[in-house]
Structure formats: structure tokens, C-alpha cells
Amino acid sequence: MPKRGAPAEVNAGSMADIAFLLLIFFLVTTTIETDAGLDRMLPPIEPPENDVVIKQKNIFEVNINKNGQLLVEDQLTEIKNLRERAIAFLDNGGDGTCTYCKGAKNTESSDNPTKAIISLKNDRETKYSTYITVQNELVGAYNDLRNREAQRLFNRNFTDMEAEYLNPETESSVKDELKDKVKRIQDLFPQKLSEAETSTN
């Protein structure tokens, strides 16, 4: 009986079709994760020509150590109380020039929301989850105050207005109307959140 030889060529005509179908399948079904960053304004590259003098009472110091403990204005504070303390600082209106502030008007605390700065400093070994939680509470303090003023002026929440303004699907006429409102609220309580150099101790 004669031996059967190997076929002269392998029919691979359908392999390209299969590979193409698999490629389409994976492109359609795969989800690409996008990391959301923190919305922060970086300092300018060149320092300003004139030194800006900032009074110590206008700086709200928040320190996180490597154990996740919070030191706010030299007092040990629970994270759950951080937002309330930040709001009290931002809304103080100590110099009497803020007509919309509802704080204690303590002359030893911040003069005006436009002058108030929150300084955040963390240890190099601070847990990322703790750092983000503290960030959320501080940003939440700004949002709470902005929501209050947006309700007073426009009967809407600031966060809803800002989300609608930043939504690419929002009509340009609506965006133009929202732009001035969003900026007006942001100017009442400008987000001045400064991150000090990380400590190594």
C-alpha cells in the first residue's frame, strides 16, 4: 500500500476571517478604564515679582501622619469632624467685609473666604485611602458652601450646575448661561487648597 504524503499546502483562507472576527469581538467587548485625577491648580513656574503676605490666621493647617491621624490647627481631630471645621474656617468672615458669610466672625480666624487658604500636609507613609478621604472632606466643605450660595441666588445646587456646565452634551446656549453663574459662585468661595511638601518623618 503506498504511503500518503503530507498535503502540499494547508488551506488557511478562513484563518484571516476568524482572526478579524476575534479582533472585532475583543474591541467591542473590552472596557478601557480611565483614571480620574484630582482637580488641582499647580503653582506657576515663575514666582510672582512681589511677595504676597499671607496672615497666619488665614491659613487652615491640616496634617496627616503615617498612622492616619489628623492634626487640624494643632488639635487632634477625627476625619468625620474635618468638614465642619473647614466650613467654620472658610465661612468665618472675621474682618466683616463678607456680606454672605454666616460664620462666627471670629477676629482670630480667617478674614474673608477670598483670603482663606487650606494647607494640607501629609507624611510620605500616609495611606492613599486616608489622603483621598481627607481631600474629599476638604473639597466637600467648599461644595457645601457653594451649594448654599447657589441655592440662595439661583435656587439650584452648585454641583448640579457645574456638572451640567462641564457636560459636553449640554447645549452651547445653556452653557453660556451657566458659565456666569458657576463663576459667580466660585468667586464667592474660591477653592484655595494648597498642598505643602510631604514630610519624611
Automatic annotation (TrEMBL):
Localization annotation: Cell membrane
Family the entry assigns: Belongs to the ExbD/TolR family.
Keywords: Cell membrane, Membrane, Protein transport, Transmembrane, Transmembrane helix, Transport
Membrane protein topology class: Single-pass membrane protein; Single-pass type II membrane protein
InterPro entries: ExbD
Main location: membrane
Name of the protein in question: ExbD/TolR family protein
